[in-house]
Structure formats: structure tokens, C-alpha cells
Amino acid sequence: MAAPRAFIIRHGETEWSLNGRHTGTTELPLTENGYRRIEATGKALVGNNRLIVPSQLAHIYVSPRRRARLTLELLGLGCREKFPWQTNRGHSDDEVRTEAKVEVTDDIREWDYGDYEGLTSSQIRAQRKEKLGSERWDIWKDGCPGGESPEDVTKRVDRLIADLRARFHQKAMKPAAKDAPVTGDVLLVAHGHILRAFAMRWTGKTLQDGPIFLLEAGGIGTLSYEHHQIDEPAILLGGAFIVEAVEHADHAAEQAKKAVEKP
């Protein structure tokens, strides 16, 4: 049995993410391109024999920001329960694919940028040069005045990692009964800086070690464990394609081609 995984998904593109403006507490909609790309991601990577198998999800954490919540909706996971912010579930019983519950948590909200909210990195450096005489700024070491420090972010990310492992991954690593369904994967939908911080802390790196990971808007990362050991967390750099999924796609394409060619 494979080790349980944690999938980290950054919300879809917004105008500010496109322009490099730091977006913490500001609520922004997804761009049309961001909307379409997340829908495409859901169709390509979510489903049986795909990267994210809904039936194998044990839990879903999501940031309270609307752009993250919409991203989760667009992935099309097919949760049995309605999302916490919904009045009614957006799909039928026939479309239910997972029993995983959704938890909205401030522990995975974006870094609080404080005085730097809405500014680009170049604007921040120009401001620091004017006020402090030096344009040097590294969020991983310096944090944000009026917002969060690296220590603040580390505290809440570590709390979330501990919660995830205690509630879901440790249980998933215990020997399962024969023919028992495989569950234990966890999904987190949030933001660029906080998910990069999450990945660094997952592997035991300090935030001061620097931004050694990148995550594009709408991007997905996979975290897991080596040797099926909870005390050997690792980054899954890449996985093999699922043969059944590729064959199914090829078959569907061939059927569509025949339908077009039929007189």
C-alpha cells in the first residue's frame, strides 16, 4: 500500500497574482483564465486512476478566502456534504465521489502581508529603501511589518501539519484489513506563500532556509513519506502515469474520431 499523500493546490489566477501583487486578506475573484484552468485541472487530474482519487481522500482543508473556496468547487471532487459556505450542494447523489469532509481553517490562509498588502516586490523594496535606507527584503527572513513574521507563519503551519498527521496519516499507515478501501490522502487548497511554507515545514526546513519551492497559480504539489514512515516526510517530485487513465483517454479519442468520420 502506498504512503498517504498531502496534495497542496494553489488557488486559480487572479488579477493580483498575475501582476505579482501580494494578496493576503484582500478578496479577489479568479480571472476567466484562472477559472478555466482550474476546471481543466479537475478534469485532467481528479478521478479514478488519476493523480487525485476522490474516494481515497480522507479530509480537505481550505483557506477561508473566496478565491481558494471557489478553486475547491471548480475541481469537481464530488463531496457528499455541501461545502460549509453553501446553502445547497451543487451536484446530485449520482455525482458523489468522496466522503471527505471539508474544513475551513485560518491555519492555511495566506501570509498576512500587513503594510505590504497589494504591493509588488519591487514596490516593497523601493519603499524600504526610502524608509530604511536599504531595499533589501526577504519575506522568509524579514516577514511583513504590520503583518506576520516567519515565526508567526511557522507556528500555524506546524499546528496544521501536526493535526493532519495525527488525525489522518498515522491512521492510514496502520495495517489495513483485507479489501478495506484505501483512504488517507489529504487535500489542501490555499495560497502561494503559505503552501510553500507548508512544504518547507513538512520536510523540516526552516522558512529562513529560503524559498526552495515554487508553486504557480492553479498548481498542484504532492507531499508524502519515504519508506512508509511518518517520521520520514518527503516531497514527491513526480509520479508515473496511470496506465488505465491513458488507455481510457486513448479509447475515448478513438471513439470520437470514428463518430466524426462516420458518414
Class from secondary-structure proportions: alpha/beta
Low-confidence stretches: none
Kindly report the average pLDDT value. Answer: 90
Radius of gyration: 20 Å
Strand content: 5-15%
Can you walk through the features of this model?
With 263 residues, the protein is of the alpha/beta class. Helices cover 37% and strands 11% of the residues. The chain has a six-stranded mixed beta sheet. The protein starts with 5 loop residues before the first strand and ends with a helix.
Short synopsis of the structure:
The protein is an alpha/beta fold and 263 residues long. Helices cover 37% and strands 11% of the residues.
Notable traits:
263 residues, alpha/beta, 6-stranded mixed beta sheet, 8 helices, 6 strands, globular
List the helices and strands and how they pair.
Layout: E1 6-10, H1 15-19, H2 32-45, E2 57-62, H3 66-74, E3 101-104, H4 121-132, H5 139-142, H6 150-172, E4 185-190, H7 192-202, E5 220-225, E6 233-235, H8 243-261
Parallel strand pairs: 1-4, 2-3, 2-4
Antiparallel strand pairs: 1-5, 5-6
Helix pairs in contact: 6-7
